[in-house]
């Protein structure tokens, strides 16, 4: 007869499950329960909707942090409410068990799955001390000692109503705001009536927010209402603004808004990453924004925006761009501009620039020659993308010659030269194959590139580009 041998950790886990099954879990049993049993037992109670057991386990939780977000994908509102009810006993009734250590309810999307880690530890017999020594998730610098609990959350506000879990949480937080600290590090606004957004922002400590993305077709009055909140996010590190069009308003209204908006950047002394996509109010006003930047940027993306030549000149003169690692200007038309300011800009960032994207900027042969000397000195560059610019074979060859000394380049993306296209504007496959063969020979003579791709214009039928490597049979669509 074959006998089943079970490890002590497995026996403890089975004993815990038996307590749940028999509804025998009490405060006194939790006081004696081995710490390593709490995570698997909590998962079991959460999955099987043992709400009373969840309330008790929250009150006796022996860890500083309760990372609930990974479990909520399989939760119902009832179990989430049970966790909040357990926290209520800690906050409002002063229940404090001997082993209680809970200070943080974590509802963030975190990469490390606490629950899987503990499950693996149980399976392999790891000690709780080994688990305690894992790298902790960073806390909020604004956590205050007089508030016994901090709730971490990432806010994603989209069209329609709030999801039921967020609604439940906010209704629970509101009357308890003096007893807990609601900390949001990431805020994404994709829609929703602004009156609802304003009510939520009033509940959050705006000092805590480190990343903001706003992708809304807001009219000017709404943008004006949001602007003061932006200025209160003093620890903001990353700002993404997309699809903001105020072009239909009279110029005086636009100027008033631009002034009000840009002065908020004077308060953003931690800003490192700035992304602006399809933002209409930059045209002719970029200097106002740049003059308000008080810290060096690592990433600057101004994509699909209408700029004036003066905007490019002001960009090259801005002190805050001298340490850029990423410069992304794709889709911002530079045709008919003097690219001397871009040359100056590249010279300034040559020691730090790692990623340069000039796709679809409308740059032509005569403009390329202006930036080549500066580009050839960007020795830290790892990615260079130049797709969609109408240049000739001769200019493309010259460009490839000037990137020969950039030994860190891992990915290079270039447009199919003008000679690849027929009179109808469609790429000629046979001609393009011949050109690629010629380019392959030239490039191999000059250097050994890590990865070079040539791309066609957008297909009128599918709307996509085709990418081809140097080898004749290499195609990635």
Describe this entry's structure for a reader:
- The structure is a single chain.
- The longest helix is centred in the C-terminal third of the chain and has 18 residues, at 429-446.
- α15 links the parallel β10 and β11 (383-385).
- α1 packs parallel to α3 (38-47) and α4 packs parallel to α5.
- This protein has a 15-stranded mixed beta sheet, with no helix packed on it.
- Mean pLDDT is 83; it is low at 1-8 and 121-137.
- The chain is built from 17 helices and 15 strands.
- The chain has 477 residues and is of the alpha/beta class.
Protein traits:
17 helices, disordered N terminus, single chain, 15-stranded mixed β-sheet, 477 residues
Based on Cα principal axes, name the global outline: elongated
Rg over CA atoms: 29 Å
**Strand order, sheet with most strands:** 1-2-3-4-5-6-7-8-9-10-11-12-13-14-15
Bin the helical content: 25-40%
Helical run tally: 17
Task: Note the main sheet.
Answer: 15 strands, mixed
Give the rounded overall mean pLDDT: 83
The total strand number stands at 15
Instruction: Please identify the structural class as seen in this structure.
Output: alpha/beta
Strand percentage: 15-25%
N-to-C CA distance:
60 Å
Return residue spans where pLDDT drops below 50 for at least 5 consecutive residues: 1-8, 121-137
């Amino acid at each position: 007869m074959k006998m089943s041998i079970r490890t002590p950790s497995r026996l403890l886990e089975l004993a815990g499950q038996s307590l749940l099954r028999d509804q025998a879990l009490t405060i006194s049993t939790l006081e004696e329960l081995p710490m390593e049993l709490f995570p698997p037992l909590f998962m079991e109670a959460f999955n099987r909707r043992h709400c009373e057991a969840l309330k008790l386990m929250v009150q006796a939780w022996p860890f500083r942090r309760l990372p609930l977000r990974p479990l909520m994908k399989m939760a119902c509102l009832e179990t989430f409410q049970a966790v909040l009810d357990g926290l209520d006993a800690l906050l409002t009734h002063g229940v404090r068990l001997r082993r209680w250590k809970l200070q943080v309810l974590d509802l963030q999307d975190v990469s490390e799955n606490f629950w899987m880690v503990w499950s693996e530890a149980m399976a392999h017999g790891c000690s709780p001390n080994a688990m305690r020594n894992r790298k902790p998730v960073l806390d909020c610098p604004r956590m205050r000692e007089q508030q016994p609990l901090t709730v971490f959350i990432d806010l994603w506000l989209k069209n329609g109503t709030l999801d039921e879990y967020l609604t439940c949480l906010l209704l629970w937080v509101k009357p308890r705001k003096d007893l807990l600290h609601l900390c949001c590090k990431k805020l994404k606004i994709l829609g929703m009536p602004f009156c609802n957004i304003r009510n939520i922002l009033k509940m959050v400590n705006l000092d805590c927010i480190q990343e903001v993305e706003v992708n809304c077709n807001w009219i000017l009055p709404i943008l004006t209402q949001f602007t003061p909140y932006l200025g209160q996010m003093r620890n903001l590190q990353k700002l993404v603004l997309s699809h903001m069009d105020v072009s239909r308003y009279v110029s005086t209204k636009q100027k008033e808004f631009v002034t009000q908006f840009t002065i908020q950047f004077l308060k953003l002394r931690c800003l490192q990453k700035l992304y602006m996509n399809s933002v209409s109010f930059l045209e002719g006003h970029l200097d106002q924004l740049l003059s308000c930047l008080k810290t060096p940027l690592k990433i600057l993306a101004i994509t699909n925006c209408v700029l004036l030549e003066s905007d490019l000149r002001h960009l090259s003169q801005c002190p805050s761009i001298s340490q850029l690692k990423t410069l992304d200007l794709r889709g911002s038309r530079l045709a008919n501009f003097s690219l001397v300011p871009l040359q100056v800009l590249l010279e300034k960032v040559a020691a730090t620039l790692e990623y340069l994207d000039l796709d679809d900027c409308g740059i032509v042969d005569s403009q390329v020659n202006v930036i080549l000397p500066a580009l050839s000195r960007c020795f830290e560059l790892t990615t260079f993308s130049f797709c969609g610019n109408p240049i000739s074979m001769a200019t493309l060859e010259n460009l490839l010659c000037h990137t020969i000394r950039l030994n860190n380049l891992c990915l290079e993306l270039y447009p199919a030269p003008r000679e690849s296209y027929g009179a109808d504007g469609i790429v000629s496959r046979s001609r393009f194959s011949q050109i690629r063969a010629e380019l392959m020979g030239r490039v191999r003579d000059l250097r050994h590139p890590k990865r070079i791709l040539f791309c066609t214009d957008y297909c009128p039928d599918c709307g996509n580009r085709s990418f081809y490597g140097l080898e004749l049979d290499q195609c990635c669509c």
